């Protein structure tokens, strides 16, 4: 009845083929007189989603998560992942060939210090690591008496004989009716930032920044309308965009040439060298700029200024047009979500649906809107123990039937031209246990604490993160991921620099959109997560002595009332939930058919203690 167009359920490769690849890779390292090599999950611009041609880590190890790193030595090999992927890596990676280590604490550098020998030559591809990452690896090598060596030509590519070709997705113009600001106006704001930085030019190494600045979108990677590209913005004169001309229609080229020169990617290095040769100070994004760019500038006599990309913050603060667009996108998405949740409530208790069925149904309801461009990430559909895998990706091999008594965790999002969505709901199939209700209610209370938060202008995500965890901590439990991430406007669903986490040091500004997604995961048991997107807005408080901010909830979807323990929840929290459900009913109900309206009425009915 349903089908998915935007994601597959194929099982990643594993087993003998991967062992053979590791052996061939070690032979290639020996041929190059290297004792080891670092293989990150990265492309040249540190994108979250990378094209198939850049999936070196997955090809070599079998690990398909969005963050990770491998180190291959002559007699040892390790895959480093963070807490989101510990369970996934254990299932995907051959434990006889690789050990699985922490990507965060302790970091990979500690492992290098312990396993490298004096005189070892450890190679890396300078186009796939930032300069700060290289400096950390350099220090680790120095402690071990080893040498870190930048390599021209990635040795993985030398043995990856069937490596896909780089993508050539067509570029589209993202008109001012969606972007809300012309390219010229954006360039003026960027140049003001360059004056502040005392820079002669800025390298836009993040394709999201290029797309935002020049009001274009593309189709080079899955789930994000990204045109892989670079740009060089000088303080004087026209900027240059470096992009494969085969991606440009005549109209796209005409659009770009109104404000910029257009050149092939191969022209980036000579352009940087020419600018650096005069001693220019060139700003680089420390989070996405490849170490190779820093080396090009330095070797040509220029001064690299590494720091935060000023475009990242400009892009994160949405203008009035983008905010109205995302509100419209969420209302549209809410209709699809209501139809989906009603379908699950009707069909899942029969015991015939699977995790894949849920993914396909949700995407189909979104396609019925007539506006869906893509899903914003592969839908996480996990029931029972699969729900406890934070970034679970269902495959035909792992696909589990949804049984009465299970929880179904479904985390999904959509890309519409006017906005990007991301929402998670945890659904009770049949009668939930007391433990499920307790954990769900604690997660919900944390979610509500963020949604109701009022905070001074300049507060950071790190200052709010504890609010989401407090009720879990009271029971001696926690979740091993951040509480929230930034979200783009028809761009990346995971957008910096702001986030709600203990690492979130960027002040939250009005116009930013962030997720609010606390959770709880019982290994081999069940998973719970509740996620809405929130817009930072001005808070009006009588007698306030400083500017204050709050959140406006954008997501409109029922939260499962059957999972709430009314003995745990406070009167104010219950009032928030009832008000939220009244708003969902008010804004979504008119767009539903009769049976779904009746379902929504019941799903959003007021709760009383």
Automatic annotation (TrEMBL):
<keyword id="KW-0378">Hydrolase</keyword>
<feature type="domain" description="Creatinase N-terminal">
    <location>
        <begin position="21"/>
        <end position="153"/>
    </location>
</feature>
<comment type="similarity">
    <text>Belongs to the peptidase M24B family.</text>
</comment>
<dbReference type="InterPro" id="IPR036005">
    <property type="entry name" value="Creatinase/aminopeptidase-like"/>
</dbReference>
<feature type="domain" description="Peptidase M24">
    <location>
        <begin position="325"/>
        <end position="537"/>
    </location>
</feature>
<dbReference type="GO" id="GO:0046872">
    <property type="term" value="F:metal ion binding"/>
</dbReference>
<dbReference type="GO" id="GO:0070006">
    <property type="term" value="F:metalloaminopeptidase activity"/>
</dbReference>
<dbReference type="GO" id="GO:0005737">
    <property type="term" value="C:cytoplasm"/>
</dbReference>
<dbReference type="Pfam" id="PF16188">
    <property type="entry name" value="Peptidase_M24_C"/>
</dbReference>
<dbReference type="Pfam" id="PF16189">
    <property type="entry name" value="Creatinase_N_2"/>
</dbReference>
<keyword id="KW-0479">Metal-binding</keyword>
<dbReference type="InterPro" id="IPR029149">
    <property type="entry name" value="Creatin/AminoP/Spt16_N"/>
</dbReference>
<dbReference type="InterPro" id="IPR050422">
    <property type="entry name" value="X-Pro_aminopeptidase_P"/>
</dbReference>
<protein>
    <submittedName>
        <fullName>Xaa-Pro aminopeptidase</fullName>
    </submittedName>
</protein>
<keyword id="KW-0031">Aminopeptidase</keyword>
<dbReference type="Pfam" id="PF01321">
    <property type="entry name" value="Creatinase_N"/>
</dbReference>
<dbReference type="InterPro" id="IPR000994">
    <property type="entry name" value="Pept_M24"/>
</dbReference>
<dbReference type="InterPro" id="IPR033740">
    <property type="entry name" value="Pept_M24B"/>
</dbReference>
<feature type="domain" description="Peptidase M24 C-terminal">
    <location>
        <begin position="548"/>
        <end position="607"/>
    </location>
</feature>
<keyword id="KW-0645">Protease</keyword>
<dbReference type="Pfam" id="PF00557">
    <property type="entry name" value="Peptidase_M24"/>
</dbReference>
<dbReference type="InterPro" id="IPR000587">
    <property type="entry name" value="Creatinase_N"/>
</dbReference>
<dbReference type="InterPro" id="IPR032416">
    <property type="entry name" value="Peptidase_M24_C"/>
</dbReference>
